[in-house]
Design goal:
alpha/beta, 9-stranded mixed β-sheet, 4-stranded mixed β-sheet, 10 helices, globular, binds alpha-D-ribofuranose
Length: about 325
């Protein structure tokens, strides 16, 4: 069965900085790289790299980036039947600033992503009905997100909503129709107006959403792993440690990995979470040729780490530097 990602694609313009400029200041960034990104595309790529059959529904512009984005999906075996070009528009772009600790700040320009409409879902309905999971984020119009959620509900297809970037405009009643709701801590704070500085606070905020009617709230907590909260349950899943150089897309890697575990035989949520949490932190390493590589991995039942190139236009081969530390107990 296929996984459908209905969402964004971006071209990531990544500057590695030592210092954020203040107003009126110019600073030099030592490094720059460009890659295919966007939360939807990242999640599709991560799921595909873990072996899922993925259908991507998104829009690109008619600029120099568009063909490369489509080529990249094709190369990774992602079904691009519903990746469309929009005339006269730019593709989505994301200037990203990564500081020395690997933390990022991201600006997104949606571009053509804004033109992914409910009518596109109707057009693809026969194909979508055959999917076992629909994955959504908030880099496209909310109207399209709600339409996709209701489509999933109507045809009994579970929906995973990653409310990123978080917006208070999100209608929680619509989100309640989803099977999985996967915010990070910052998004959880924005959506609930509650503090999330400690595990207890995160649990309280997640429970607040559960009490509003959300079924499975899975909070990604960076290097600390993830917390899964339902009406009956609160479980903390530890991540394993890596030397994170750039955390961009870590949540996307997690979601792609979690989603892939849906197929071909759905596993228990906790099993899937444990595996995804293992694959949660991508690590960026600088090789001899100064190329940067982002990798994600997951812990297999035999304890081995299966890794996968994450930055979707770069392939990671065995032998690439990964520097994973031993997985901690998950
Ligand atoms: O989640 C990471 C992604 O957010 C980046 O790839 C960027 O494109 C933004 O959408």
């Amino acid at each position: 069965m296929k996984i459908a990602v209905i969402g964004s694609n971006m071209v990531d313009l990544i500057s590695y900085i030592n210092k954020m400029p203040v107003a009126g200041e110019t600073v030099e960034a030592p490094n720059f790289s460009i890659g295919c990104g966007g939360k939807g595309a990242n999640q599709a790529v991560a799921a595909a790299k873990y072996g899922a059959d993925v259908l991507m529904m998104t829009k690109v512009g008619d600029d120099i980036f568009a063909d490369n984005t489509i080529k990249n999906f094709d190369k990774l075996g992602i079904d691009t039947k519903y990746v469309e070009k929009v005339k006269g528009l730019s593709s989505g772009v994301a200037p990203i600033f990564v500081d020395e600790s690997g933390q990022n700040r991201i600006i997104i320009v949606k571009g053509a992503n804004k033109y992914l409409l409910p009518s596109d879902i109707d057009r693809a309905s026969e194909e979508l009905k055959k999917c076992s999971l629909i994955i959504l984020q908030l880099e496209i119009n909310l109207e399209t997100v709600y339409y996709a959620i209701n489509f999933g509900k109507k045809y009994n297809i579970p929906v995973l909503l990653n409310p990123a970037p978080a917006t208070k405009d999100l209608d929680i009643e619509e989100a309640c129709k989803c099977e999985f709701f996967v915010p990070n801590e910052t998004e959880l704070a924005i959506l609930t107006d509650m503090p999330v500085n400690t595990d207890d606070e995160i649990k309280n905020a997640a429970e607040y959403l559960v009490n509003k009617g959300l079924k499975n709230v899975i909070v990604t907590m960076g290097s600390r792993g993830a917390m899964w909260v339902t009406k009956e349950n609160c479980q903390y899943l530890k991540s394993f440690k890596v030397n994170a150089v750039d955390t961009s897309g870590a949540g996307d890697a997690f979601i792609g990995c979690f989603a892939e575990r849906e197929t071909p035989v759905p596993k228990s949520i906790v099993e899937r979470l444990s595996e995804a949490v293992g694959g949660y932190v991508p690590e960026k390493t600088v090789g001899a040729d100064a190329d940067t590589i982002t990798v994600a991995g997951r812990v297999l039942p035999n304890g081995e780490i299966q890794k996968s190139g994450f930055m979707n236009d770069i392939n990671v081969n065995d032998g690439d530097v990964v520097n994973y530390l031993k997985p901690e107990e998950n």
